[in-house]
Design goal:
Blueprint: H1 3-33, H2 42-54, H3 58-77, H4 79-102, H5 112-131, H6 140-150, H7 155-169, H8 171-174, H9 177-202, E1 203-210, H10 214-225, E2 230-236, E3 241-251, H11 255-265, E4 270-277, H12 296-301
Antiparallel strand pairs: 1-3, 1-4, 2-3
Helix pairs in contact: 1-4, 1-5, 2-3, 3-4, 3-6, 5-9, 6-7, 7-9, 10-11
Length: 302
């Protein structure tokens, strides 16, 4: 398949999954969180406050705020960031605009805590799905990107500060402390679930194996597990003798197979196993980064 066709398919797939992720986020927000009058973090939280103060639909307020932030961010963080964010910001507002009227007077469950748990998990899945396909819903991401551009404050910390302020401000709207607590629970659930989705998508396992039967183990891993091995040379400081070390990368679901191979050949092998977030290359995931276009100076030098 030509390179252009491959790139087109990847881009199309990313946009499809970003759209699905934003739809899932909006469904969790509109069907479970908004009916409980719980203010969450981000621009969705600001949109919720505006909705209960003025009656303006969350989608309209949310999109207007995102556009204002993106216009400010254009000069600060550049065109590339803005263009990469505007699609996700548009999609989330479209889906919230569709789902909010549908669940205006409908409550799927009568348990407030159950509603926010389900809503937080669905929102987290949606955010994680969009993020793994290079998507962003805007909101506090934009503020964090601008702050980190000119200060030493990290993106994650800035988002936490902004979300904390938005959720806490809901107390002055409803004067109910339990709704503020629910907002923080949704924030924690969304963040945790999104991290799980992102990390599970890239999780692999690294084995480090010390064994006198390293040749047999390496051959078995090649033949039976269909995984490569790297042989490193080291020295045991106690014995002062040279040792061979096997380094093996595999997907998490293949870890049991590797462990069984090691145990069947050398039950006394010294083995360490560690989770790795992201293994890229042949047999694993493709490293997805957009290369910078060569500058005019570089082209002239060539």
């Amino acid at each position: 398949m030509p390179a252009n066709a491959i790139n087109f398919w990847r881009t199309t797939r990313d946009y499809i999954f970003i759209t699905l992720g934003m739809a899932m986020y909006a469904f969790g927000f509109c069907a479970f969180i908004l009916p409980q009058k719980v203010v969450i973090g981000g621009v969705a939280g600001l949109g919720t406050i505006i909705y209960f103060l003025t009656g303006i639909p969350v989608a309209v307020a949310q999109y207007a705020l995102n556009l204002i932030l993106l216009a400010i961010a254009y000069k600060v963080v550049g065109k590339k960031f803005v263009l990469g964010t505007i699609f996700g910001a548009t999609m989330i507002s479209v889906w919230v605009g569709i789902f909010q009227p549908l669940f205006q007077d409908i409550r799927i469950t009568d348990e407030p805590f159950m509603n926010i748990v389900i809503g937080g998990i669905l929102a987290g899945i949606g955010v994680g799905l969009a993020f793994t396909h290079n998507g962003s819903s805007g909101g506090t991401d934009i503020i964090a990107a601008m702050v980190s551009k000119h200060t030493n404050v990290s993106v994650g910390r800035t988002m936490l500060y902004v979300d904390f302020f938005i959720i806490s401000s809901s107390y002055f709207l409803f004067h109910q402390l339990d709704l503020v607590v629910y907002g923080f629970i949704v924030l924690a659930l969304t963040s945790f679930t999104a991290d799980m989705i992102i990390n599970t998508n890239r999780q692999a396992v690294q084995f480090t194996i010390f064994s006198k039967k390293w040749q047999e183990i390496a051959t078995a891993i090649n033949n039976d597990a269909k995984r490569g091995c790297t042989v490193l040379t080291g020295m045991g400081w106690y014995s002062k003798q040279e040792v061979k070390i096997l380094l093996v990368m595999c997907r998490k679901i293949e870890a049991v197979t590797i462990s069984r191979i090691i145990k069947s050949i050398d039950p006394e092998a010294f083995t360490t196993q560690a989770n790795v977030n992201g293994v890229y290359g042949k047999g694993f995931d493709e490293l997805k980064v957009k290369m910078k276009a060569p500058s005019h100076t570089q082209q002239e030098e060539k």
